[in-house]
């Protein structure tokens, strides 16, 4: 029988948080949510946000900020489990909104942990949303040097049209393999650095305070309900909004860069498995689909499903800090948390996403503005 928990979800009105909250409620848990309802995610009238509306009057909700000590302390009373999802997301934006990302992701996490460490709360389990961004390029195989962990790609190579990853020893092109949790962490963006800081701080305090702590390194999460107006994160949302506004899609690099797209339902099931696991655990876990899909395939599939002829252009442009590929090794989470793995294929998940998006209001396309910001900062080549 599942033991009922009193759970606080910071960032619980976001895409992952709201879906997780509803799943936990359905399983008999008590859920409290702390969320600032950021306009970048929830729009200019956040109280009408579909994500917020999905949990309204179902959870104990506080509109507040993880950087506000009184907000945090008021929400921690009576809680035995904290799921810390509150964070700014977006690789590109993090490379110029540096102070803000550090303020929210690092300082906010530090304030949460300080409250837990210095007050008499009965926190027994801490779950933090990390990211595959902590790995940087991750794990590859070189025909000469075996398994290698390359540094970030060089701009000079990419300017010349060589977007592939090179062996750090012999400079040969290398082959993508699944990245496991023992892979050295080498984040190539401020966002990745802040997520690594978050998980390291949580795991450190978890050990010191004897709190069972898990950091979930989520891959590229997608699905119905994600923000269609945020131009800084979510390839599917960005491309969909472009197509529905009859604007072309600009594919970076050569279009063969790939991502591990994991459906929101699979992310929720993996996270619930961690929250409900009875063992005392202090570890990191990959959460993904274990399948790579290249960006050009995503764009072509969306074009077909939306039944549009809006052009798709491979520009050869690239963003500083972007990785070439990511692919999660899921062996550890399957064995340690008895998670059966992802159930939703990308084809099925994409169809469900498109069917949902068709019924949503067409959002203003702010993609060009976000690209202009990157270009002005020298981050778009």
Topology:
Blueprint (H helix, E strand, L loop, with lengths): L5 E5 L4 H12 L3 E6 L3 H4 L7 H6 L4 E4 L5 H8 L4 E4 L6 H4 L3 H21 L6 E7 L8 E3 L3 E3 L6 H5 L15 E2 L13 H20 L2 E7 L1 E3 L12 H10 L4 E3 L6 E6 H13 L5 E6 L4 E3 H11 L6 E3 L16 H6 L9 H13 L8 H10 L5
Question: How would you characterize this protein structure?
Answer:
- With 381 residues, this protein is of the alpha/beta class.
- The chain has 14 helices and 15 strands.
- It folds into 2 domains: 6-139 and 178-376, Rossmann fold (3-Layer(aba) Sandwich), CATH 3.40.50.720; 140-177, no CATH class.
- It has helices at residues 15-26, 39-42, 50-55, 69-76, 91-94, 98-118, 155-159, 190-209, 235-244, 264-276, 295-305, 331-336, 346-358, 367-376, and strands at 6-10, 30-35, 60-63, 81-84, 125-131, 140-142, 146-148, 175-176, 212-218, 220-222, 249-251, 258-263, 282-287, 292-294, 312-314.
- A hairpin with a 3-residue loop joins β6 (140-142) and β7.
- α6 packs parallel to α8 (190-209).
- The chain is globular and about 60 Å long.
């Amino acid at each position: 029988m599942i033991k009922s928990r009193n759970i606080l979800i910071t960032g619980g009105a976001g895409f992952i948080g709201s879906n997780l909250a509803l799943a936990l409620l359905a399983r008999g848990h008590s859920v409290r949510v702390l969320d600032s309802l950021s306009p970048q995610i929830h729009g200019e009238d956040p109280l009408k946000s579909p994500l917020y509306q999905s949990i309204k009057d179902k959870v104990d909700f506080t509109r507040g900020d993880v950087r506000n000590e009184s907000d945090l302390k008021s929400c921690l009373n009576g809680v035995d489990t904290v799921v810390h999802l509150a964070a700014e997301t977006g690789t590109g934006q993090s490379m110029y909104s540096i102070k803000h990302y550090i303020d929210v992701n690092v300082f906010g996490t530090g304030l949460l942990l300080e409250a837990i460490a210095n007050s008499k709360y009965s926190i027994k389990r801490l779950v933090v949303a990390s990211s595959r961004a902590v790995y940087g390029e991750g794990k590859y195989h070189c025909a000469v040097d075996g398994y290698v962990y390359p540094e970030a790609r060089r701009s000079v190579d990419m300017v010349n049209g060589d977007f592939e990853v090179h062996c750090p020893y012999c400079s040969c092109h290398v082959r993508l393999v699944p990245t496991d949790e023992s892979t050295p962490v080498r984040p190539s963006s401020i966002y990745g650095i802040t997520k690594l800081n978050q998980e390291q701080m949580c795991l450190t305090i978890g050990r010191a305070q004897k709190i069972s702590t898990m950091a979930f390194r989520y891959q590229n999460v997608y699905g119905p309900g994600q923000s269609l107006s945020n131009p800084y994160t979510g390839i599917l949302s960005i491309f969909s909004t472009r197509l529905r506004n009859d604007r072309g899609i600009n594919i970076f690099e050569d279009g063969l860069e790939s991502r591990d797209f994991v459906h929101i339902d699979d992310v929720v099931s993996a996270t619930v498995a961690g929250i409900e696991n009875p063992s005392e655990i202090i570890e990191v876990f990959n959460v993904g689909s274990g399948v790579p899909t290249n960006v050009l395939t995503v764009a072509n599939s969306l074009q077909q499903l939306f039944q549009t002829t809006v052009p798709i252009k491979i520009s050869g442009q690239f963003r500083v800090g972007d990785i070439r590929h990511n692919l999660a090794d899921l062996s550890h989470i399957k064995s340690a948390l008895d998670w059966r793995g992802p159930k939703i294929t990308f084809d099925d998940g994409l169809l469900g996403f498109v069917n949902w998006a068709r019924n949503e209001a067409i959002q203003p396309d702010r993609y060009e503005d976000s690209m202009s910001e990157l270009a002005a900062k020298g981050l778009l080549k």
